[in-house]
Every structure is written in C-alpha cells, then in structure tokens.
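Pipeline run #58 for the internal structure catalog. This entry was flagged by the ingest filter as a single-chain record with no existing model, so it goes straight to prediction. Upstream metadata was stripped on purpose; only the residue string is passed forward. Reviewer on rotation: M.T. Logging verbosity set to normal.
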Amino acid sequence: EEIKNYLTQHNITATLHESGLYYNIISEGTGKSIDKCSEVTVNYTGKLANNSVFDGTNDMTFGLNNLINGWRLGLPLIKEGGKIILYIPAYLAYGSDGVPPSIPGNAMTIFEIEVIKVQ
C-alpha cells in the first residue's frame, strides 16, 4: 500500500512483480545474465519514501545470495550493463526491525542500481 501511494504521488509508473516488489527497468543491459549465485559489481543509491538517502556507493561487489530479497528478485530482471529502480516493500527488505537509525522498521526502500559487472 505504501508503495502504491508513493508511486501515485510521484506520478511513477512501475511494474508489479509477483512478489510485491515494484520496478522500473531503465535499461536492460546487454551483458551476462544475473542469477541467484552471481556476484555483481554495482553502483547504487538507497533511499526511503521521504527521499532521504540512507546508503549508496560505486563499484561495490556483492554476492547476490547475501543481499536482501528485493535485490535477489529484482536484479535478475536485467543484465550486466543494465539499470533498474526497485521499490521494495519492508518484508522484502529490512522487515519490521529495519536498520536503526538509518532505516526505520516496516520501511519501504527504493534502490536505483546500475550493474557494472556480473561474475
């Protein structure tokens, strides 16, 4: 519900994933496909519904299986070189506990992610 309200308020059209995640593919990418075992090098920004940025970096490498469910579900929708915006409900992100003090409990999170490399 919070995500729907956010999208409506900001005139954003996003696609609903069966998991409850919403997303916008900015560019699909043309490189390697991403699967649950991939290591990905990304540039990303994470923010809350009030647009306050809580995280972000460039050229960070992660094992996809070590990330929040929203990323695990969203990143395979694009390929190496692609860019996506994920609107992630709390239950696919940081849950009812959040990550105090930067991410409150039950918070929707928004990630803009550019996939630089897939290994």
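catalog note: DSSP finds two helices and six strands in the chain.
catalog note: The chain has a mean pLDDT of 96.
status: ready for reviewer M.T.
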